[in-house]
Amino acid sequence: MSETxxxxxxxxxxxxxxxxxxxxxxxxxxxxxxxxxxARDYPLLHARLVDPDGELRAFxxxxxxxxxxxxxxxxxxxxxxxxxxxxLPAVAGGAPSALERLSARIRRExxxxxxxxxxxxxxxxxxxxxxxxxxEVAEGSPTGALRIDRNWLELRIEEAVPEPERPIxxxxxxxxxxxxxxxxxxxxxxxxxxxxxxxxxxxxxxGLPFEVPRVLDDASRARYARHLRMPEVGEAGQxxxxxxxxxxxxxxxxxxxAALYLAAAGVGTLVLVDHDVVDRSNLQRQILHTxxxxxQPKTESGRQAVxxxxxxxxxxxxQARLNSENIExxxxxxxxxxxxxxxxxxRYLVNDACVKLGLPLVYGAVYRFEGQVTVFNVDDGxxxxxxxxxxxxxxxxxxxxxxGVLGVLPGVIGLLQATEAVKLLLGVGEPLSGRLVHYDALRxxxxxLRMKAxxxxxxxxxxxxxxxxxxYEAFCSSSA
Length: 480
Known about the structure:
There is one protein chain. This protein is α/β, with parallel strands linked by helices. 34% of the residues lie in helices and 18% in strands. The chain is built from 19 helices and 20 strands. The longest helix has 18 residues, at 409-426. It is elongated, with a radius of gyration of 31 Å.
């Protein structure tokens, strides 16, 4: 018993609402604080002691020692460590409630184990399943536990535990909700389900190991609610997105939709790299920027746009032109890179740096009514140099400023880039590695083209040392 706890003694009719425990050790310096603690840890019990207005129910008497607290100071009655509160409800010897009857039936069918026994079984391969709500889990959960909110159990358990013969040990705060969860699991076909008696409260009291896992706060749970419903994302995936760092090379036509949707998805850190300022001609397609920010650096304009959409996202603005001297410092710590640049020297530089640093590169390009998107440096797939060993002559690859681009086209390609980035960060689906998607907006057609890694690629060939950075401006000029 903790030195800061008082003992709450329960009569038999109330024990089913407290994990069948005859006594509870509850923190509190007053009767009201003890009742608040019961509301948190034993809500079913609390509901039978206190009415919706927070007053003791008329059929419940509560004694401190031998004195009725109503004759003292009611819920303000002070308590000292070691005091005993005795609950004395009116008892008529009537039939148990429906929940009591259900719990009694389940206990006859579902074995119970102690927390210590559960820990040993988990070490042997059993699944320790914590079915409490996120707010409860945030205060601690057994180390290594699988955590699925009771409300989502039936929808998510089969993906998390596909083997119906694998033992599952259910746990909640005191053992009541987990008992009901165990019954549901048996009806779903799991053959070996056991409930942990006393729940997490007893787990902690016995000094067994637990951790305080990272969980989403209430604001994040509301913001990402649609992600949380997807088993491919869920809370673990959303936390992974929040810990991710993505570098966007270019805050223009491709970087704009990619940045906004990655921010909306909850990617934790976006590094916006661009040396240019916002020009009014950009606004036809670069939706990060607005008319009142013409003349501002694109990175600062982009930072403002992302902050307005999702203030939880950290934006690092790099107002610089990339070169061989600064490229690695910009990419350090990134999980992946999105290439939204508009010139060949930058594309080759970024590719080479990503190969050297082992970073996935999500490539996109647009021209007039056509766009391309693919993923480089993933799953032994090709790099940008495998696809284009050298740049084309200038007449075959005019810039958007020279040849023009349909304003909505970068939105299509940039969103595909953002989609590939999210898949890579979550580790789900099949990335566009070894496949290039070509989009023809005039014809309304997508075409998928296969690519292979070049075994003689000067940059990414297996076993070949990194050749070093070159003068990319000179390389692109000489190739032309």
